[in-house]
Specification:
heterodimer; A: alpha/beta; Rossmann fold; two-stranded antiparallel sheet; about 10% strand; globular; B: alpha/beta; seven-stranded mixed beta sheet
Chain lengths: ~280, ~300
């Protein structure tokens, strides 16, 4: 696995953002908003932090990634393609009949995915189970799990938060994409989840609060989580939904719709700079 | 007389010794489900998840991804009801190797009442792609079913009962998931049953014999995949079918058998089971009588089916 430098990661983030708007536009549907907010978290994870072998997906020592908020699979598919799991061109098959890139991830179809997801609130429990298996087998791989902030309204998440702390699963690292928007509006107006840091701390987790678009902070957070022993860690990443596309930023309506041709051009200009 | 949940407990202990990958989870009912028998012997491989069924199924899914063979255990009503979406989306859609054990299946749970009597669990599990559904008839078969479930890959639902019921199968009897056991041969009518009510079917067979009616009795311990060949052969040879189960007749064994018959060999079917109602508190003995789940009810159903036979 090739580990990208900070400068390379910055460039990769642009490509990942470009992939997200292009593949959802080609599909005519999908979830660009929450994919774009998680770009730095995911790009750093796949292209720098995780030990994994795209050419050997069943490598037992690999770090695991569980996408709990399954609808943001565009960002996952993009970082998988860009780390070598499948050709980047295949991204344009997203959501089409016969594609391995289902509208929500299917592990039966796409090797390299650990598990299928799409119904919210379930990923952290799976991450915990993997961590328990690692402890039994005396393996030291890490398990990363991306959750949305709206997803934290699901009760199962807090069951899993308790379990991870109870069993001291320090191999688990939860990532909260705290973009403060969900389908029906602002998270705090739909069903408040704040204060997040205090909540996770009171459940006996190690919390790391960062700007989720600052790659240096993202990398440092992953390292801090890795060094934290005896309890699980959560990276609470403050982000902007739709980040990188001017007309999408902080607009709840871009949770689940794709760009038309004109919007796509503006989005790509925003991401790569006009004329690029 | 033994509760078939005891068979589950014995099966887990045997599996624990034979296969170090077997792990067991429970949701605060370990004593009642008998998973504590495993916990006592293999504490490092037992995880109590607390009163959190959804998390338990997700954790079991993760353990299976890590190469373990998890048995997620609690009452049938909770495991299949509260965690249905976790079973559907995480476990069945991903086809994970998770074993789900539902204790306290059926109305014979007794005084705890309707909330704790699983009467829909077979239906809920049967509709899920990749799922196997196994309902052992006694403690000996329950142990075999537990071990057999560990030895097939993919999700399985095992249903156990709370009360002590007659043990009428033997260790040496053949058991294979998906292969029904014909317990009595017969030519006039066939009784297809699952779970402890199979014993009532055997009693019904004797009562019917006294009336000069020859009733075949089939122990359909696996509801999915259903042994269609044995059902069709029975329909062909006896031309009348009675199903018997401690479960809603809609969606359960009665439905499963009927689906096969209407497509291939329509013959009269009578269904003994719960008729679209909830249970209530009472002793198990009182409840099975009130809800028409005893040998006499099977006899009446057989007579009805016989009367409806196409001459």
């Amino acid at each position: 696995m090739y580990t990208q430098s900070l400068e390379e990661l910055k460039k990769s983030c642009k490509d990942v953002r470009g992939d997200i708007v292009k593949m959802t536009a080609a599909a005519g549907s999908g979830h660009p908003g929450g994919s774009l907010s998680a770009v730095e978290l995911m790009t750093a994870l796949y292209l720098n932090v995780m030990k994994h072998r795209p050419e050997e997906v069943t490598w037992p020592e690999r770090d695991r990634f569980i996408l709990s908020k399954g609808h943001v699979c565009p960002v996952l598919y993009s970082v998988m393609a860009r780390s070598g799991y499948f050709p980047v061109e295949e991204l344009l098959t997203l959501r089409k009949l016969g594609s391995r890139l289902q509208g929500h991830p299917s592990s039966k179809l796409l090797s390299g995915l650990e598990v299928s997801s799409g119904s919210l609130g379930q990923g952290l429990s799976i991450a915990n189970g993997l961590a328990l298996s690692a402890k039994l087998n005396k393996k030291d791989f890490r398990i990363y799990c991306l959750l949305g902030d709206g997803e934290l309204q699901e009760g199962q998440v807090w069951e899993a938060v308790m379990t991870a702390a109870h069993y001291k699963l320090d191999q688990v690292c939860a990532l909260v994409d705290y973009n403060n928007l969900q389908i029906d509006g602002a998270v705090e107006s739909v069903m408040g989840v704040a204060p997040l840091v205090e909540k996770w701390q009171s459940f006996n987790w190690h919390t790391i609060q960062i700007d989720g678009h600052d790659l240096s902070q993202v990398l440092a957070a992953y390292e801090e989580a890795k060094q934290t022993k005896g309890k699980p860690s959560v990276i609470i990443a403050t982000t902007v939904k739709g980040k990188g596309c001017s007309f999408m930023e902080n607009v709840a309506g871009w949770h689940g719709k794709s760009c038309n041709e004109k919007e796509l051009q503006i989005a790509l200009d925003d991401i790569y700079g006009k004329g690029n | 007389m033994l509760p078939n949940r005891d068979g589950y407990g014995h099966g887990l202990i045997e599996l624990g010794a034979a296969n170090s990958e077997v792990v067991v989870l429970d949701a605060d009912l370990a004593k009642s489900t008998r998973s504590d028998w495993f916990a006592d012997k293999f504490p490092e491989r037992f995880f109590d998840i607390g009163i959190a069924e959804q998390d338990m199924l997700g954790t079991a899914a993760g353990l299976s991804l890590g190469g373990k063979i998890p048995f997620a255990t609690t009452y049938g009503v909770f495991v299949t009801g509260r965690a249905w979406d976790q079973i559907r989306t995480t476990i069945c859609y991903s086809e994970l190797n998770v074993k789900i054990a539902g204790a306290h299946g059926g109305i014979s749970v007794g005084p705890d009442g309707a909330t704790h009597q699983a009467l829909e669990d077979i239906a809920l599990m049967r509709v899920l792609p990749h799922m196997r559904v196994i309902v052992p008839c006694d403690a000996v078969e329950a142990k075999k079913a537990t071990i057999a479930a560990a030895n097939v890959k993919g999700p399985c639902y095992l249903r156990f009962a709370r009360e002590a019921t007659p043990v009428f199968t033997e260790e040496k009897d053949f058991f294979e998931i998906g292969k029904a056991n014909v317990l009595k041969e017969g030519t006039d009518v066939t009784i297809i049953a699952c779970g402890p009510i199979v014993y009532e079917a055997l009693l019904a067979n004797e009562q019917l014999a006294a009336m000069g009616i020859s009733a075949r009795v089939i122990n359909m311990h696996t509801i999915k995949p259903l042994d269609e060949a044995v059902v069709l052969q029975a329909a062909e040879e006896t031309q009348a079918i009675v199903t018997a189960e401690e479960h809603q007749v809609a969606g359960g064994l009665g439905s499963a058998v009927s689906e096969v018959l209407v497509k291939n060999k329509p013959v009269p079917v009578e269904m003994v089971g719960i008729q679209d109602t909830f249970g209530e508190s009472g002793t198990p003995e009182e409840l099975v009588v009130k809800y028409h789940l005893v040998a006499n009810d099977i006899v009446l159903a057989a007579q009805k089916a016989l009367a409806r036979k196409i001459k």
